[in-house]
Amino acid sequence: MSLHRFLPAVAASALLLAACAPVDEEADPAERAGSAAEESASADACATESLALKNPGRLTVGTDSPAFEPWFSDNDPSNGKGFESAVAYAVADELGFTEDQVDWVKVPFNNSYAPGEKSFDFDINQISITPARAEVVDFSDGYYEAAQALIALEGSPAADATSVDDLADLKLGAQTGTTSLTVIRGVIQPDQQEAVFDDTNAAKQALNNGQIDGFLADLPTAFFITAVEIPKATIVGQFQPSAGDKEEFGMLFEKGSELVPCVNEALASLKESGTLADIEQQWLSDVVDVPVLQ
Q1: Beta-carbon neighbour count of residue 240 at 10 Å?
Q2: pTM score over 0.85
Q3: 63 - beta bridge partners?
Q4: Spatial distance between the Cα atoms of 48 and 246, rounded to a whole number of angstroms
Q5: Per-residue pLDDT tens digits for 43-52
Q6: Long-range contact pairs involving 202-205 (C-beta distance under 8 Å, separation at least 24)
Q7: For domain 148-239, which CATH number applies: 3.30.950.10, 3.10.560.10, 3.40.190.10, 3.30.70.2570?
Q8: 3-state secondary structure of 117
Q9: Separation CA 271–CA 269 (nearest Å)
Q10: String of b and e for 25-40 (b: at least 16 CB within 10 Å)?
């Protein structure tokens, strides 16, 4: 074949191969632009100056008073001591706030999850995430998985209990509106009407006065009560949620709050870095050697 006839044939073959060659599967330019715009919008929405806050430039955090150990220390949420105080300030830092840009407001426990406008950006107060509450308020992702514990005086009938059946004849109590009260009613189901208290201080007083045989509180609080506040009391056992029904504490927001996804991003960062685990290790007691009552 002559050279001038060979070259067009080669060119034609090259064109054919090029036409059949695989094409890189790249995203549509419009899709790439849209995705980048969404990411940018998300980042802009969580920029400190763009956050939807009750008071511009200030992060307002709610909790009850008194604020109990080990969640808070010395009844002072603003000192950064105690698990929930430390978590709140860690989240604030992730959102771009310094400690002096965080304001605390008093919010009675039962008022926190009531419908309506809130005086805070978020509330942190051992509030369990439940479907019923989530109908009227919003929650962050969980920051702590909780168990309930029964506290009784050493040497009492309640202190000798080793199963839920052993608690049937006892007078038990818990703070109103708490998961502790739900456990009494739904898991223990004692024969006697349960005692309902406005706060844990009232429950402790009733136990000391012999008005109840025992009361329930979350496990870390039970450790503190029995170690410091009522040394003659003991933790009888704990109640773990069933599989697929875990109980988590979440930060609580006014329904429809635009701050929720930004706080969730902050929590995700704290979990990934190990900071949240470090805070838990520092402030909350381990559950070692506390039997599960079944």
Answers
A1: 19
A2: no
A3: 106
A4: 33
A5: 688 999 999 9
A6: 202/175, 203/173, 203/174, 203/175, 204/229, 204/230
A7: 3.40.190.10
A8: coil
A9: 5
A10: eeeeeeeeeeeeeeee
